[in-house]
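User: Can you help me understand a structure? I only have the sequence.
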Amino acid sequence: MSIGNSPEDDRPSAKDDRPSIGHVLQQARVGAGLTVDEVSTSTRVRMPIVHAIEEDDFSPCGGDVYARGHIRMLARAVGLDPEPLVEQFDDEHGGRPAPTPAAPLFEAERIRPERRRPNWTAAMVAAIVAVVGFSGFTLFSDGESSGGNVAEGPASGTKPTPTDARTTKPADPKPEPSDSAIAALPKDKVTVKLSASSDKSWISAKSHNGKVLFDGLLLKGETKTFQDDERVDLILGNAGAIELFVNGKKVQDEFKMGGVERLSYTKGDPEVG
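Assistant: Let's start by predicting it. Here is the structure, written out as tokens:
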């Protein structure tokens, strides 16, 4: 009796028989009746990169992180579920780094100075005092007229002005300057908030020691906030769609739609690393 591997052990696994990622994306695009130009326009992935991915060449993507983002966008554009393709990419390129729980989030927008409400009680008391004063003045004047006494008139050219019972609604007092959301942020940490205001964007965020805080697609209208003791490193795909706030202050850099930005922020005023 011989001991050895059975013929079944030498057969390639099911994963080895899978068609390539580029072939699947190309066939789905053709089946959907889309051209490379149309896919490039809808995903904002440049045409040379689309051609390269369909030929299973991911080097123009600029790294595995970018390649995953491009695969997701192209798959959705041609009507495919991107996750099996991303999983296949990870299998073929050494796997994906284990996700690390994000640092405690600090939503700066939740901290707002409390607006002072108008003091309606004081306004009502003032109005009542004015009405009572006017009523007393009227009764006193009527009493003197009925008794036949002529009250000494005011100096020539002047007219008595009765107290106006109507009171003007007090204007809403402006809130006194108070600590803003920026001042409320912890001084010993760096806080970064990303908001996809006009379009979706792929983003990657890491802490100062290289831990992955987030790696994925930020859809339009979604917001992510990250915090670290020293530094937050960012990579933004389709950077023009992102509104960026660092330590409570909006960053005014004009990023381009479809552009890729590599940024690094530390404590204090926003400074691009």
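Now, to help you interpret it: The CA atoms of residues 206 and 262 lie 11 Å apart. Residues 6-13, 103-111, 148-156, 174-179 have pLDDT under 50 and may be disordered. Let me know which part you'd like to focus on.
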